[in-house]
Amino acid sequence: MSVTDAVATGVPFSTLADTVLERLTATYAPAADPERAAPMRAYMKDVAPFLGLTTPVRRALSRTVVAGLPRPDENDCTAIALRCWQLPEREYHYFAVDYLRRHARVCSSGFLPVARHLIATTSWWDTVDLLAAHVVGALVAADPALKADMDTWIVDDDLWIARTALLHQLRYKEHTDTERLFTYCLRQSGHPDFFVRKAIGWCLREYAKTDPEAVRAFLARERGRFAPLSVREALKNIGA
């Protein structure tokens, strides 16, 4: 991609991205398996076409793609992720997510709008959940000022943005902002969508591994406000 093309598409210019995308498409495309691609696409509810690469195969190919390349900076991460998202096949999106997970520490709070774009574009749980827990969560942990953005995201009309706000603390354990976690769950307790209700139960279940009594007490007070699915998921490992 030339500098002119990058500016025109809103993707920053990056020579590292040029190299990664050239290697990526040259490595993934010949390994495509059309027989696997069709059921993979169906399983993911036709959110995107697939090349048909299994996870072990894809990750082995990805190691070849990045072998010997320098560590990226935030500009490189932005360019690589956005350019992968411009490709239709889902495996390219998976590559971008794995790449961002590996290099999230080089990204500043300024990367949050990029993460939001990825979450809100070609949205499904397979990319959203990893971006939420490993990228957005890492950004907020590094810059607590971004909690204000999460306070906005939790009431967003886009269910995937709201789900991300619920899940961004998934890996925080004892560093979880418990008040914010419980408040977010309450704010979305009446949401009609399965994926939001499931996320409520999931984030509570995960925090219950750190403080089961806090989760039990919270649900003892508030369980009437939640869908049975949320409650069941939250209490799956700790009982009523």
Task: Describe the structure in your own words.
This protein has 240 residues and is an all-alpha fold. Helix content is 65%, strand content 0%. Helix 5 packs antiparallel against helix 6 and helix 6 (90-103) packs parallel to helix 8 (125-142). The longest helix has 18 residues, at 125-142. The model has no long low-confidence stretch (mean pLDDT 96).
Strand-and-helix sequence, N→C?
HHHHHHHHHHHHHH
SS element count, helices: 14
Beta percentage is under 5%
Instruction: Report the major sheet.
Output: none
| Coarse structural class | mainly alpha
Alpha carbon gyration radius: 19 Å
Mean pLDDT: 96
Shape: globular
State the low-pLDDT regions, or none: none
N- to C-terminal separation?
56 Å
Helix content: 55-70%
The strand count comes to 0
List the helices and strands and how they pair.
Elements (H helix, E strand, L loop, with lengths): L2 H7 L5 H14 L5 H10 L11 H12 L7 H13 L3 H14 L8 H9 L4 H18 L4 H7 L5 H9 L10 H10 L6 H15 L3 H11 L5 H7 L6
Helix pairs in contact: 2-4, 2-5, 5-6, 6-8, 7-8, 8-10, 10-12, 12-13, 12-14
Provide keyphrases for this structure.
240 residues; mainly alpha; 65% helix
Could you give a quick summary of the protein structure above?
The chain is 65% helix and 0% strand. It has 240 residues and is mostly helical.
